[in-house]
Write a structure and sequence with these properties.
It contains four helices and ten strands, in the order βββββββββαβααα. This is CS domain-containing protein.
Amino acid sequence: MSQTLTPEVTWAQRSSDSDPERNYLYVNIKAAEVPKADATLSITEKNVTFKGVSRKGVTYSVSLDLFAEIDPDNSKINHTDRDVELVLRKKELKEEFWPRLLESKQKMHFLKTNFDKWVDEDEQDEAGEDDYANNFGGLGGEGGDPSGGAGGLGNIDFSKLGGMPGMGGMGGMGGMPDLSALTGAMGGMPGGEGAEEEDDDDLPELEEAEGKKSAKIQEVS
């Protein structure tokens, strides 16, 4: 007899009143070792339902009635051997966050905040552009399966997904060593090391302009 479990679900969100690409929910359904062929995912405007059987015979099942409407056609999926990651586009463009993920105010034991991806509402602009959502594939490229099937869980290449968004930008630091050359060059400028000596060198040049002997110039320098 197979065991049926409610998988842990984590979530975070972004919001925007003008940019749909920055107005979404990030939902992670932690159903491990569930092959794509043995999983079904239904995404509608107000509900997300997942069911799958793992290689160990564990059945995972969860249904999420959402706080407000989403846009299934522009939502995205990443199904791995560890979990199912969803980026659900909020239907209404709005600067304010949803107060909660689910329609019900009841606390669900399986639902947790994803603090790795959470950003406070008033800190979204400071956090910068989040490209993570753009790395996912669409719902099979056809807006999902209206019949409530797998919804494009297959035929999506997620092998090129990188780490957390923005981390790749650190590669630009490779150009920083050039600053050391500038720093070294500044050593010979007035105000840097040896500046006192350079000031002394200026005196012979003035004396030379006044017709002083070159021997005296060498003596001072």
